[in-house]
Design goal:
This protein is an all-beta fold. The protein contains no helices and 20 strands. The protein has strands spanning 3-13, 22-33, 40-45, 48-49, 55-56, 59-64, 67-68, 76-89, 95-108, 119-128, 139-149, 158-168, 177-182, 185-187, 196-201, 204-206, 217-224, 236-249, 253-265, 276-280. The chain has a 20-stranded parallel β-sheet that branches. The protein is elongated, with a radius of gyration of 23 Å. The protein starts with a strand and ends in a 7-residue tail after the last strand. The relative contact order is 0.06.
């Protein structure tokens, strides 16, 4: 049975430090630090956080219909089993070193450096703005319904599945491993460089110089916009592209099926000339 704490406020340092088995309702946390630190089995409902580092070193936390203001930066670190639903997050650096995180209907308005070194994450219908470097070094992540604006996303991430997403993100998936993206739009230059086992299915790709230095890249039923030029340099891949491609440059090995291609560049820097087969599927008829 949880102790109910409602319709009140706290301020200063550590007002509820090491308080377990509590439910917070309509509680406001004014400036201070570490308000709910070292607490287990906490529920927070319709609460507002204006203090720094409110949830650190916690286990089993449920957060519903809350607001984390810009003053509650670095709110949840070094914790396990966090569930957050229907919540507005205005603060950066929200999650670090979390094992077991579930987010549903959560909106981030300033998500820089969020979700670093986190593992075992599930996201459903999440919107992120200003999310530079989100999910860096993350692992075991499942996402369905995701709108991201933020560069350098998923850097060094491993074992990620993304569905129904729109990623406005330069340098996404750099040095990542075992990433699969379904039914999504990815808009941003230098996509997926130095990735390993990146698998794109039914995706639309925009931005210059995508998917270079990639190993074991697979593309199924994808399309590319005209600004996605100089593709696949030094990559090993198997790609099915159902659109024109502006230019392909020095792919390493593998197979590319493409509707049409404006230019194939195999210059003196090509490492394995002729070992990547490029098949054009839409032939141009001439009189």
């Amino acid at each position: 049975m949880k102790q109910l704490i409602g319709n009140t406020f706290f301020e200063g340092e550590r007002p509820l430090f090491a308080t377990n088995d509590i439910r917070l309702e309509n509680v406001r946390f004014y400036p201070g630090e570490s308000a709910v630190k070292e607490c287990n089995n906490v529920e927070a409902y319709k609460c507002e956080f204006m203090s720094k580092y409110p949830f650190w070193h916690n286990d089993n936390t449920l957060i519903e219909e809350c607001r984390f203001t810009v003053y509650s930066r670095a709110a949840i670190w070094y914790s396990k089993h966090i569930c957050m639903m229907n919540t507005l997050v205005e603060a950066p650096k929200m999650f670090r070193e979390i094992d077991g995180l579930y987010l549903e209907n959560v909106k981030f308005t300033s998500a820089a450096e969020c979700c670093w070194n986190c593992r075992n994450l599930e996201l459903c219908n999440v919107e992120v703005k200003c999310g530079d470097y989100i999910f860096m070094n993350g692992s075991n992540i499942e996402i369905d319904g995701f709108d991201l604006q933020g560069n350098y996303s998923f850097q060094d991430a491993k074992n990620v599945v993304i569905r129904n997403a729109r990623l406005d993100s330069k340098d996404a998936f750099w040095n990542s491993e075992n990433i699969t993206v379904y039914d999504s739009v990815i808009d941003g230059e230098y996509l997926g460089w130095h990735s390993r086992n990146l698998h794109l299915i039914n995706c639309k790709i925009s931005g210059t110089q995508p998917l270079c230095y990639a190993k074991n890249l697979v593309m199924e039923n994808c399309t590319m916009t005209p600004d996605a030029d100089l593709c696949f340099e030094y990559s090993t891949l198997h790609a099915e592209i159902n659109s024109p491609v502006t230019s392909i440059k020095n792919p390493n090995t593998g197979y590319i099926s493409v509707e049409s291609v404006g230019e194939i560049i195999l210059d003196g820097n090509c490492r394995n000339p002729g070992t990547c087969k490029i098949e054009v599927t839409k032939k141009t008829c001439t009189a």
